[in-house]
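Write out this protein's structure.
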Amino acid sequence: MRGLSLSRRTRTTTILVAACALLATAGTWGAVMVRADAGRDRTVGDAADYGPLSADQYAAAVTVAQHQADRLGGRLATATAVVRPGQVSQANLAGRCDSGSMVRIRLTGRFPHVATGGRVGASDGAVTTVDITADGTSGRACLLTVATGKASPYRQAADLMPALDVG
């Protein structure tokens, strides 16, 4: 019994055509996935979580909150953000908040690795609130403050937790 006999040239051509078809399919699929990812990058999380923030402000707030959560350690309970008019005149971080619009981010939880200078007569409790102010246009953080005691998230605010990678 003899199988199908193809010339060497026919076999080579058939294999080359099949390989090109597979590469074209993989390339098309890859381009579709990159386009989907690029479209998703502009909108982080679910639009229902944005609250008073625009998509760009929400993405910037998530980036700032993720950076600070990673840097500070601890256990994050809530992460919220609101937009307020104004400027920060005395920044304590590298960014500048002078566009006239500020994104105020509040992280609540337990941050045992954060030391506070304390005030005379104030409690020496663990840090439970981290407030970060970022410029509403550039998204760069310019001010960071901490507090001890009862922590509350911002009311009527964007919920950043669904978009954060906290574990």
